[in-house]
Design a protein that fits this description.
Blueprint: H1 2-27, E1 34-48, E2 51-65, H2 84-113, E3 120-123, H3 128-131, E4 139-143, E5 146-147, H4 151-160, E6 166-172, E7 175-181, E8 184-186, E9 191-193, E10 196-198, H5 206-232, H6 244-258, H7 263-285, H8 293-306, H9 312-342
């Protein structure tokens, strides 16, 4: 059952991404040849106002076919005959819809479970926070140059800056204070810690849920971007990457762990994973790499600056190379996922 839920969650996130492209294409008067739910052979299809709407056999996302390869078409609805800014809006809509979906998931989750304010709930003796005089109830608002909105950002910062000194700004009884802490290594865990604990989760109203949903999405976007930076700088290896198989395994494991606690816990866990996956997909698609939405945006922004389109055949060659490299990466990631599962 967990595997089925994993496929459905991942498929819905990809589908929502394609829905963003579809809606903006329609808004800009671009012909959409087909909008499909799923991949593979068609189970059902119906044409309406020039677009074929289809349900395909494999429940793994979907696609929005706009006929972008019709270079010589004189149709006013052809993608390539629209203004560069109209095309940019269509391409960027996919990742933006992923962030919107992550926000919706976060809003529902926070209404269900509450939110984690960046307020100190406990200070451990023998660790830097206690030695610097920090106390329970202190609200942390900044760590070095990074603003803090939720408690997990504190843990996230420490995780990505192990052993590094950090300037912490916090508010106590309306007064702003600043201390510099150098994390101390927990020999048992092999991990550098500041000695700060969370106060737990606070119940959310509608307004606070809106506010903290934005912070939640921002948090996962930052986690993804910083992880990509560490991947590029070699701080983490490509062996740590996961593809669809790895994602399915994580979702299945989360389902099995939360199932004994009832439907509420299962739903909360799936919403949490949905936020993570949707924000991740949005960021990954904005990477300026050929064949991804970000790579296509690079060519469109060049066109907007030059007032002249990059020759289609040259752009096509670049995207072909990008697709090839992505396929190689996907095979490597698939191999890693399978190896982690069975070996």
């Amino acid at each position: 059952m967990g595997i089925i839920f994993a496929v459905l969650i991942f498929s819905f996130i990809v589908f929502f991404h394609e829905l963003g492209h579809f809606i903006l294409a329609k808004k800009n008067g671009i012909d959409v040849e087909e909008f499909a739910i799923g991949m593979g052979p068609t189970l059902f299809s119906k044409e309406y106002k020039g677009t074929r709407y289809a349900v395909r056999i494999l429940p793994i996302g979907g696609f929005c076919a706009m006929g972008e390869d019709e270079e010589t078409s004189d149709s006013p609805g052809c993608f390539n005959n629209k203004s560069v800014w109209a095309r940019i809006s269509v391409i960027v809509a996919g990742p933006v819809f992923n962030f919107i979906l992550a926000f919706v998931f976060a809003f529902i989750l926070i209404l269900m479970t509450g939110y984690d304010r960046p307020v100190v709930g406990a200070v451990e003796e023998g660790y830097p926070a206690a030695e610097a005089g920090m106390m329970e109830g202190d609200k942390i608002i900044r760590m070095s140059d990074k603003k803090i909105h939720i408690f997990r950002e504190i843990s996230f910062y420490n995780q990505f800056h192990q052993g590094e000194s950090v300037e912490i700004t916090y508010i106590r009884r309306g007064e702003t204070n600043t201390v510099v802490l150098t994390p101390k290594k927990d020999e048992e865990l092999g991990y550098y810690r500041l000695g700060i604990g969370s106060e737990g989760y606070s119940q959310a109203g509608i307004l606070s849920a809106f506010q903290y949903s934005a912070y939640e999405v921002k948090y996962w976007i930052n986690v993804t971007i910083d992880s990509l930076k560490m991947l590029l700088t070699g701080q983490i290896g490509v062996d740590n990457l996961s593809g669809p198989v790895g994602i399915i395994q994580v979702v299945d494991e989360s389902y099995q762990e939360s199932k004994p606690y009832g439907g509420f816990a299962v739903l909360a866990q799936f919403l949490y994973l949905g936020i993570l996956l949707s924000a991740n997909l949005g960021v990954w698609n904005l990477i300026p790499f050929p064949a991804l939405d970000g790579g296509r945006l690079v060519f469109l922004f060049i066109e907007a600056i030059r007032k002249k389109r990059v020759p289609p055949e040259k752009e096509g060659y670049v995207h072909l190379v990008g697709i090839t490299l992505l396929m190689v990466l996907m095979v490597f990631v698939l191999f890693n996922d399978v190896r982690r599962i069975f070996f």
